[in-house]
Specification:
3 copies of one chain form a homotrimer.
Chain A (H helix, E strand, L loop, with lengths): L21 H6 L15 E2 L9 E3 L2 E16 L2 E8 L8 E4 L3 E8 L8 E3 L23 E7 L4 E6 L4 H6 L4 E6 L8 E11 L18 E4 L10 E4 L3 E8 L6 E5 L4 E6 L2 E2 L7 E2 L1 E4 L3 E8 L3 E7 L24 H8 L12 H5 L14 E3 L2 E3 L5 E7 L20 E2 L2 H6 L6
Parallel strand pairs in A: 1-11, 3-6, 5-10, 11-14, 13-24
Antiparallel strand pairs in A: 2-3, 3-4, 6-8, 7-9, 9-10, 11-12, 14-20, 15-19, 15-21, 16-17, 16-18, 16-20, 21-24, 22-23
């Protein structure tokens, strides 16, 4: 896959220096002169990429390849996923309102597929429901979709053939259609797509039959601590386009330190009169929610608030030993179950802090390195890093709080002065 | 049960030729002259019916009978359900704002019941909470509820006694109260109630203890491919009144090809200033959501976007064999488990396309016949069929897309012209 | 723990006689003259309490103690919970917009903790994410948080260290920040926080690993029939501040007999133009929803509409025997499983009405005593009791409906007059 220089796979984050508006002008040039990769993009896809396009006779042309691929959720856990052009979710399709697009879809999977353009208004025959609006794309075949993008917004693409399997294995992507008329205000514009999978410990294939017990939850295909931060400057308008294709859970995405306005769904922009402020937006399955806010300096957690969606694989199935005296238990159980190790008698935090031996191809329940020790989170957890002034486009490291503004241990004098008795 | 001629059970769809407004005038005639069945209704209940009523002394009178019944979810799956007047969900109660209604409820179940009028403002004693606002209706007894409908909208009815069992087995229905002042614009007005059940393979009794593993999801009691389409003409204003009584899931209902406005909840109409556009509306348990949009020509999927809610019984519990070479596995397992058949090594789509021998009283995971082959969907999936001109009230068959507007295989010339390399 | 005289633990309900406005004036007095307990509060916390505070040099000072505690869910079920200051949820933190607060947090748990002030705008270092914004509070330590409350609203506090365990065991609380300018209208102002736990039958420790099968659902830590009612007078404006910290379910909270306006989230007030009426508000995990309505006389159910969230522990795991003839089954099974008793062959209501022998430390699936017999509900179910005139602050008992306004058995004459045939 050809990767635009403005996007990043896996680590770090590159901010767009040039706005998207370069594209329509470029389209006026002779088609043969068009570059083979996308021009300057104004969106940022943490851990992901934008799908390259070319322009020919005024039509923007894309090529999606549905295929099996190896994907790393976080160091330690690799899965056999299905996706597009080497990644899950697939690259973001980016275009401008009013453009005609032609999207070729090659099926390199072992079974039929199709692509539905979720939220776009396309003719019946381009809607991508295999059996209903088109024949399925058989393995090895390439289909052509073509339509005009009649409105701006944040949309999605996914198969509409054997959805249970294909979505479960990772086939999904976002579509960003920019308005023809550019906003005057500069915006930090992020795309974040959630997913949930059940990857049984020691296996590499997400289980498409899982309905409830998801244990790997991701933003743009990555679980914390592998999620790249969202970087901005103090006072920037920050836009996050949240997308959820399920399969089963409506995710409440919470941002620390700010309230945001929900400004659009995949149905359209939300009029000012209908907007509400939230600190947690529920993103139902099969929807996008675009939120905007002005950044304040700090490192601000952004995560799904369902507690089991902010932790990784291990722990969901273990016995409840909180408060249990397990002295000697390991040895006794180990006689019948070699390698057994009790966990969590004082809660689970201790787990994140010990160097446990991980089962093959699995990741710790929680735990990323932070500036103040271990961060007890996993899966759908990432960080919005806002700095007064950014030096470059990369990860700015940890926030240095001004002196005296961090919670610390209270001194005996303070406790005494304020009449606090600690017992 | 007497069925109004304007409603349909099981297949097809009859559109109302006359508006609901006939009813208030009818009420002015002498009570003795009233017909025993409902007059022209302006709502359409796919796969369902409207509850007949009579008028006496200006009071609209209904009779609900809570009872066990045999119900077909889709050809191949029959269940022993509980419902009202022979169906699950029960018939839609339809009336006009300001009317006084008297509803008799006969309990033909083996246990106590009651009826709560969800969303209606009724006096405390008519609220239907057994034990709290009234004694329960014992088996064999008939109770009388009476109140004035003080506002228009879309509401629901269900038992408020042993809810876990009675709702799980199918006891629920919709209530449509039309505004006294009729809108000038013609509206195609559909009622669609969702439900979810756990019917273990080979059994016929929904399991009321199921909390998570629902495997039969329905619109108006039917699972795709048995769901009747919603039929309209191009340019029609289409209203869909979505209702959800659970028991446990908030359903994100997605419409293809259109964005709709959410215009009302069971709390009341949504003011214009507060309306937002969506392509997927989340309908939480215990709510109604009324959506409106203008139809475009085509066959447009309307479905719950949770992937396991758009598939039927089988498949949720099987082993994950995607990518596994199962050659010879069937024979080996068959020695210990006669009849065993592996499935889904290349995904699940193959399942929909083979003539599997189904277990007794069960339906395929997915699969309805479409114009372009098998439609890989089940359960909460139906089709909004919009035609430029309808010939009659029935199912218009499959949409014929204009030439050149359907996704098809790309030719070698096209691929070459557009610089697409298929590998 | 010192308890304000205006709050109530466990039973009954005390209404505030004096408004909250006393507090800012009090703050003007010399710090040394401040009382050690909170002054008159204008909020009511059914089954809960308000956290005492003192004022010193214009700073409002609180002290939270994170600790293990014994908690009664309802008579018959006691759990070993984790909470704050002796209760789960912890006491409500109440203050006024613009106030500077200093909150000491003592960790009396066996593992690290921290406190995140969900929805408040605090400096990065006060945000409470262990590892990211501060070091964790080690067992035995007391930390000091300090910040200014820059806006009014309903917020929450909870640990941001080993959330899965600490939230599952009960660590959470609400924060109410009153506007500086008091509203002219009197409001009955209630705080209600939901929680869900999995307490396996016969155990006392909530299982932090539970993801789906919650069997104890609570409002302010109590399951029906132990939930205290919300009491008001006819015509009162009633405000209910609903808060949900999960861990996993978005609760649809339904009120009978009224529609309410959703007036605020934890992000801020909802502008009038964006408000909608509902009878059921979905409260996603990690959010607050404040609703307001004018009370009508009666006893009105307020409950989660997910059927398994309005029932208690038993029943979720039993066999489905609805419609099964179990005659003789008990005796036969009892030979191999002593004490076995079949249940629910005619539905589950019969269970609520028999005097079953409960397993040790467990509560019936459903069942509270009502004025008309057993109320078949449990868990997240409570009652809003509205009376034309209240005699005092306590529970006013059951509502006496005016004669002729309660659903009752229909007489033979009525059935004959209205043409109803009961078969």
């Amino acid at each position: 896959m050809t990767i635009s220089r403005r996007t990043v796979l896996g680590t770090g984050l590159v901010l767009a220096a040039k706005p998207w508006r370069a594209i329509p002008n470029a389209a006026a040039a002779p088609a043969s002169a068009q570059p083979a990769v996308a021009r300057a993009s104004s969106i940022v896809v943490p851990n992901g990429s934008v799908l390259p396009s070319t322009i020919r006779d005024g039509v923007r042309i894309f090529h999606l390849r549905a295929e099996e691929l190896d994907h790393e959720i976080a160091p330690g856990l690799k899965i056999k996923a299905w996706g597009y052009n080497g990644s899950t979710p697939g690259p973001v399709i980016e275009a401008v309102e009013g453009e005609r697009v032609r999207i070729y879809v090659t099926n390199a999977l072992p079974e039929r597929t199709s692509v539905h353009w979720h939220g776009l208004f396309v003719p019946h025959g381009m809607d991508g429901v295999a059996g209903l609006t088109q024949p399925p794309i058989e393995p090895g075949k390439t289909f052509r979709y073509e339509f005009v993008l009649d409105r701006a917004g944040t949309f999605m693409y996914h198969p509409h053939a054997d959805e249970m399997t294909q979505i479960a294995l990772g086939m999904m992507g976002m579509i960003v259609v920019h308005p023809r008329k550019q906003a005057r205000e500069r915006v930090r514009d992020f795309c974040l797509m959630s997913h949930e999978m059940s990857v049984h410990i020691g296996t590499a294939r997400p289980d498409p039959l899982a309905m409830n017990d998801f244990n790997v939850l991701t933003f743009n295909g990555k679980a914390f601590p592998a999620t790249a931060p969202l970087v901005a400057e103090t006072g920037d308008r920050i836009r996050i386009r949240l997308a959820n294709l399920g399969p089963m859970d409506h995710h409440p995405i919470h941002l620390h330190g700010h309230a945001f306005e929900v400004v659009a769904t995949d149905g359209g922009p939300i009029p000012t009169s209908a907007r509400i402020l939230e600190t947690t937006v529920l993103v139902p399955v099969g929807t996008t929610r675009t939120v905007e806010f002005v950044g304040k300096a700090g490192d601000w957690a952004l995560h799904c608030h369902m507690t089991h969606h902010a932790m990784n694989q291990m722990g969901h199935d273990a016995a409840n030993l909180v408060g249990v005296n397990t002295k000697g238990l390991d040895q006794r159980i180990a006689r019948i179950a070699p390698g057994y190790m009790t966990m969590g008698t004082n809660g689970m935090s201790e787990m994140a802090h010990m160097q446990m031996e991980q089962p093959r191809n699995s990741i710790s329940m929680v735990g990323g390195k932070g500036p103040h020790g271990v961060i007890d989170m996993g899966s759908m957890f990432t960080i919005v890093k806002v700095r007064d002034k950014l030096a470059g486009d990369g990860d700015p490291g940890w926030y240095q709080a001004p002196a005296g503004t961090t919670a610390t241990e209270a001194t005996a004098d303070e406790l005494s002065r304020d009449g606090i008795k600690v017992t």
